Amino acid sequence: xxxxxxxxxxxxxxxxxxxxxxxxxxxxxxxxxxxxxxxxxxxxxxxxxxxxxxxxxxxxxxxxxxxxxxxxxxxxxxxxxxxxxxxxxxxxxxxxxxxxxxxxxxxxxxxxxxxxxxxxxxxxxxxxxxxxxxxxxxxxxxxxxxxxxxxxxxxxxxxxxxxxxxxxxxxxxxxxxxxxxxxxxxxxxxxxxxxxxxxxxxxxxxxxxxxxxxxxxxxxxxxxxxxxxxxxxxxxxxxxxxxxxxxxxxxxxxxxxxxxxxxxxxxxxxxxxxxxxxxxxxxxxxxxxxxxxxxxxxxxxxxxxxxxxxxxxxxxxxxxxxxxxxxxxxxxxxxxxxxxxxxxxxxxxxxx
Length: 352
Prior knowledge:
Layout: E1 17-21, H1 38-47, H2 70-82, E2 87-91, H3 101-109, E3 116-121, H4 126-136, E4 140-144, H5 150-157, H6 162-174, E5 180-186, H7 195-205, E6 208-213, H8 231-241, E7 245-247, E8 257-260, E9 267-271, E10 284-287, E11 292-294, E12 303-304, H9 306-309, H10 315-327, H11 347-350
Parallel strand pairs: 1-2, 1-10, 2-3, 3-4, 4-5, 5-6, 6-9
Antiparallel strand pairs: 7-8, 8-9, 10-11, 11-12
Helix pairs in contact: 3-4
């Protein structure tokens, strides 16, 4: 019997996964998120003629007083767990830019009922924080790494940081984070020639590697469907190079379709929200760094929670408000359809 106080939407989906953005700020300028630097936009224009020859628009960061405090974030998570949330993923922007983030991790790790506490990071600062995060109770980590070629990495991220990311991945394995996941957004004409090399990297280092389709969440509004390398194309190429065995999933809400290498070292996953949407099983909700609830990555509406946290609103009233917000969760996104409107904020502001 379904408990009345769970987070259930109008489609009957029970939400179990909360993504919490700790900051909208990032130390990278990835092409698919924050390509505000002139070099990044010029690189884009060199590949796609539809981009305007305009002055780059710099990201307007959320004023610091509007960013949720650790105490406010912990309160939201406690309430969400009481409503059936079991998985917490800390994101950004770049979450490791928050000072003393390990203190927040420790507070969250002590909340009863959390089955999975993870973080997504670009990895640049991870070597400095890895030990503290592990001791604080973080058990899973996902890195973003879109290229193994130093120059291509720099073009895609706006930063010469490949060595730091590779060091972070190795350190995560040494410290016992499991599984260690690495994500790559694949963009046609930019890094799709590295698909096989990235898979080989995963096999050699026994990593869970995720290939992700390029989504319309970049602040430059440069996305075109022609830039997307469909998941089925990625899989076909990988099967030509590797013998892959499908991995069965017991979780219908899992975003990745997964395959393993025969020797048991490493795993490949493909996340294809554009060509093969998985909206029907989505069980996720997002809290932005400035305290907005988003019921879909591509929501056009954000629900203000910060105002309630900073008023006299009781826990019970916030819980009831959250149930009402979740009931309005979108049935699906409309990427690639004529009526699709991209969200006003980029991935860095929304949270992964």
